[in-house]
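In this section we turn from sequence analysis to structure. A common task in structural bioinformatics is to predict how a protein folds when a small molecule is present, because the ligand can shape the pocket around it. The inputs are simple: the amino acid sequence and a SMILES string for the ligand, here 2-acetamido-2-deoxy-beta-D-glucopyranose. Study the lines below before reading on.
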Amino acid sequence: MLLPVLLFAVVLVDSSQGYVFFAGGRDGWVLNPSESYGHWAERNRFQVNDSIVFRYEKGEDSVLVVAKKDFDSCNLSHPNRRFADGDSRFEFERSGWFFFVSGAPGRCEAGQKLVVVVMAVRRPRWPPVSAPPSLSPTPVLPPAASPPSETSDPATPPASAPSPSPKASARPPAFPPIPTGETSVPVLSPAPGPSESAATAGAGDHSGKWMLRIATLVGDLDRLWRALRALYHPRNFYVVHLDREAPAMERQALAARVANDSLFAAVGNVVVIEKANMVTYRGPTMVANTLHAGALLLKQSKDWDWFINLSASDYPLVTQDDILHAFSSLPRNISFVEHTSRLAWKEEHRAKPVIVDPGLYLDKKTNVFWVSQKRDLPTAFKLFTGSAWVALSREFLEFCVWGWDNLPRILLMYYTNFVSAPEGYFQTVICNAPEFAGTVANHDLHYIRWDVPPKQHPHVLTLDDLPQMVSSGAPFARKFPRDGHVLDRIDQQLLGRANGSFVPGGWCVGDPPCSEVGDMAALRPGKGAERVARLMNGIIRSNKFAENQCR
Ligand SMILES: *[C@@H]1O[C@H](CO)[C@@H](O)[C@H](O)[C@H]1NC(C)=O
Ligand SMILES: *[C@@H]1O[C@H](CO)[C@@H](O)[C@H](O)[C@H]1NC(C)=O
Ligand SMILES: *[C@@H]1O[C@H](CO)[C@@H](O)[C@H](O)[C@H]1NC(C)=O
Ligand SMILES: *[C@@H]1O[C@H](CO)[C@@H](O)[C@H](O)[C@H]1NC(C)=O
Ligand SMILES: *[C@@H]1O[C@H](CO)[C@@H](O)[C@H](O)[C@H]1NC(C)=O
Ligand SMILES: *[C@@H]1O[C@H](CO)[C@@H](O)[C@H](O)[C@H]1NC(C)=O
């Protein structure tokens, strides 16, 4: 049978170059639209000079523009504006929040109301970053799950991480170690020049960027905001995702905060995924979400080196200047994926069960369900498992996202029915791809403290853990309580971050400090850079690098 398909897009542009939105789409301004107004507003992106048109039966209804408190309480007594002509057009002349309610009695209470957040500036979603300095690490934080799928690994605890102390060995280390002294590092060191080790980097003009992908729990907006500020560097890219569990208002509020932040707006390197994905605890939808964020980054820019996924309960232990400096000397092809092939109890409990993730096809969140039949262990490839926290090289992410080799796609389909897919997908792909197996570093860049024996979730970190966090050399730690002295202490002692502001770095100028971007290439690495370099010496610049690969 022939199925002719015609696709077309119509964009209405008026003289002032604004878009015209029709409230509620096809249904118009009615009592019970087929798509809720909250959902409709969330699908659209409103900018200054756009207009919204309300269509309804003249005489039957009206539109009131009201203040937030009157919106909340459906108080119709003193609207800012009132329209009743049946085809009412309202132009957004400023950014911020706009509240619309129906003027017909009882309808506001029944839900005929609409909130719109208008973005501050009309700009492409992902403006080019100005002349990139020649440095490289590109952290990207992927979205976190809701609730975050812990990387818990009761039988094979975090242990497979190589010890940070490089041991003398017969074989030469894969890469020459960077000397790290105990003394504090000079302030204001010049940005490293184009890295000769950037074999695949072409001109070597990568600016240091990570992609930050964060997904968080309901009500976690403030925590996410704090982590974002602690992790921010103008050279990195950040993709932020609040999953579908978060109320639409919260996602809009996050987008509005990002759009309204003058520094984020000026640099344009923080992107909020506004069309939220459904993400199920332990389900494959988390992997889909991570790949989605990765695909977004690859599409927007090739100018970054590592894709890192974090959640709102993660926090950095070193400054971004430290990370950029320490990573600038690493080969760009290294991916950090903690892994092991010793599945142990996971063989029975992860690899053999077959699950279905309703997040793939239902629009309400429910838990994964188990199919009664079990399946055999695979023989077409070897299974690996490990930490769900990964830092992937751009090359490897391209391999996974583009799928010119069928392996990443086949494994994605296999993991669709796998319990805790995020703890195995990237591990199994990288170790079964000969061209990438030699690039995997067996570490997840996190300090995570497990119970002995490990339970489902790791310890919530407290002040007592601070010395171990620091001595681990890990750039990130998890998981942290929503509010705790430990984060304040990390801000104070490790990051030098003042309450509410960014972590000071070489890029900071303006008054107050870091309110403007100066020289993005200027790095001021401190003690944190030494700690990370020591860790890297242990992981990558030692013979352990190859010994710990894919075993
Ligand atoms: C909105 O339109 C006015 C008038 O056409 C124009 O001056 C202004 O720059 C526009 N604002 C934005 C943000 O596009
Ligand atoms: C509506 O708001 C006005 C002004 O704030 C107030 O005087 C009035 O009592 C409110 N009405 C209701 C029903 O809350
Ligand atoms: C934007 O920021 C200003 C002050 O910095 C604040 O008054 C305003 O409410 C913010 N707007 C939004 C939409 O968050
Ligand atoms: C990425 O990060 C989230 C936390 O935001 C985590 O739950 C998820 O499992 C991670 N890993 C993968 C492979 O998606
Ligand atoms: C990774 O890059 C380094 C340095 O650029 C190179 O020497 C090495 O051969 C590469 N490794 C693989 C497995 O391609
Ligand atoms: C700054 O810190 C104080 C005390 O820890 C806290 O009460 C306050 O809310 C913080 N302010 C901001 C803007 O985070």
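The chain has two domains: 6-14+180-337+387-401+433-547, 20-125+133-174. As an exercise, try to locate the residues that line the 2-acetamido-2-deoxy-beta-D-glucopyranose site and compare them with your own expectations.
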